[in-house]
Design goal:
Helices cover 33% and strands 23% of the residues. It is α/β, with parallel strands linked by helices and 435 residues long. The chain folds into two domains: 110 residues, Urease, subunit C, domain 1 (Roll), CATH 2.30.40.10; 310 residues, Metal-dependent hydrolases (TIM Barrel). The strands form two sheets. Strands 1, 2, 3, 4, 5, 14, 15 and 16 form an eight-stranded mixed sheet that branches. An eight-stranded parallel sheet has the order 6-7-8-9-10-11-12-13, sandwiched between helices. Bound molecules: 5-methylcytosine and fe (ii) ion (FE2).
Length: 435
């Protein structure tokens, strides 16, 4: 067999449960062979290798002995329209979600297509260079010109050769928070947003919040879109919109096309209620997206001590068999002035905040920024290091997931659609002291 690119000797993450030392062959943008180095018959069969693949020649061969070969990172929740605006027009002094919304309300009055596109593409390149090849971004659609949405839809096309971008129509100021907002949300779907968003905890009343969720489901069915709702992103233990989202998903049998983002109030619910809710969630089977970097800083701001962590019940949701992925949420914007887009930082924060420090739990946090994200985004059928899949994969300067996370390892090479998209040299400190 002749192929375009052959990666030899990597530790290949073929499934969340299985790593093999193997050669990976890529041709015409696809993974065409995975040849385990110590081929035993069981591996040969389920990796679909055959005898002809034992003699692979390649246009380009790379020795990646001992490196981790991983499927790409999936960023399941980010706001690209506000990325790289931190400090403009002013810094968030209280650190709260609500001050962030107000700063953004001022900033979004003078958006231009060029402004949003330039920042979004710069951010996506930064993400891609760190191994992110699938991104779900929210686009604020509560501003009458829909500039943020139009810009991100143009960016979606502009980057499609190297990045899969999904755009959620997100009514940041509430669907019923202003007279035009409901119509703007629907117009965003007509213009081609991939998914419908919402923010029930920021609607003017509890009733408006519930009504907004029903409207989101109606629109999703009418326009055949999936749903991703900012849900209960507040420390209020009485914020209970997640149960409404779950019930709508269950009744409409849409669980697999529904994601609840943030759900930080779930961390403040009493255990009796949380346990009941968990059972309902197991029936609706919606996806969860936690954003630990942002919510560990935004939440708990009204607490003195003890101060809550303000992150949803990631470990318990995972233990209950639900799909949880992790998002970065912000890169240098009114809500979070830090961040580079590196998903290892996100998983590292989840390990700490959610106390997922057991070895299986650490691997799980890695899975939450890879396979689980692919499930949330509905792209699992085109994801993973498997024969016949698009050749999207990473070479990490690490032995395994634990090593990658512990050292925040360098993502040495990013391969997208079979082509090398980015390379980074591992930093290599040299000891010059005595002994
Ligand atoms: N908007 C919102 O409602 N919540 C967030 N975490 C961000 C924007 C970043
Ligand atoms: Fe968000």
């Amino acid at each position: 067999m002749n192929c375009d690119l052959l990666l030899q000797g990597g530790h290949v993450l073929v499934t969340p449960d299985r790593t093999v030392v193997a050669d990976v062959a890529i041709s015409q943008g696809q993974i065409v062979a995975i040849v385990p180095q110590s081929l035993n018959s069981a591996e040969a069969i389920d990796l679909e290798t055959d005898s002809t693949q034992n003699s692979i020649t390649a246009q380009q061969t790379l020795d990646v002995t001992g490196k981790l070969l991983s499927p790409p990172f999936v960023e399941s929740h980010i706001h690209l329209d506000s990325a790289l605006t931190a400090g403009n027009p002013r810094w968030n002094q209280t650190g709260t979600l609500f001050e962030g919304i107000e700063i953004w309300r001022d900033r979004k009055q003078n958006l231009s297509l060029e402004d949003v596109k330039q920042r979004a593409i710069a951010t996506l390149k930064q993400q891609a260079m760190q191994g992110v090849l699938f991104v779900r971004s929210h686009a604020d659609v509560s501003e009458p010109s829909l500039t943020a949405l139009q810009a991100l839809l143009e960016v979606r096309e502009a980057v499609q050769d190297w990045m899969t971008l999904q755009v959620v129509a997100f009514p940041q100021d509430g669907i019923y928070g202003g007279p035009q907002n409901e119509a703007l949300l629907e117009e965003a779907l007509r213009q081609g947003a991939d998914g419908v968003g919402g923010i029930p905890h920021y609607e003017l009343t509890r009733e408006d919040g519930v009504r907004s969720i029903h409207r989101i489901f109606e629109l999703a069915e009418q326009y055949d879109r999936w749903i991703d709702i900012h849900c209960d992103e507040i420390d209020d233990d009485q914020s209970r919109f997640l149960e409404v989202v779950s019930a709508c998903a269950l009744r409409r049998e849409m669980g697999d096309r529904v994601a609840a983002s943030h759900t930080t109030a779930f961390g403040s619910y009493n255990n009796a209620y949380a346990l009941k809710l968990l059972g309902f969630l197991q029936r609706s089977r919606i996806h969860f997206i936690a954003n630990p970097l942002i919510n560990i800083t935004l939440q708990g701001r009204t607490d003195s001590y003890p101060k809550r962590r303000g992150v949803t019940r990631v470990k318990e949701l995972w233990q209950a068999g639900l799909n949880v992925s992790l998002g970065h949420d912000c890169i240098q914007d009114p809500w979070y002035s830090l961040g580079t887009g590196n998903m290892l930082d996100v998983a590292m924060m989840a390990i700490h905040v959610c106390q997922m420090t057991g070895t299986a739990e650490i691997d799980t946090c890695y899975n939450m920024v890879t396979w689980n994200g692919a499930k949330t985004l509905g792209v699992a059928d085109q994801y993973g290091i498997e024969i016949g899949q698009p050749a999207n994969l990473l070479v990490l300067d690490a032995r395994d997931r634990y090593d990658a996370l512990r050292r925040r390892a360098t993502i040495q090479m990013v391969i997208s659609r079979g082509k090398i998209l980015a390379e980074t040299s591992p930093c290599n400190p040299v000891w010059l002291g005595r002994e």
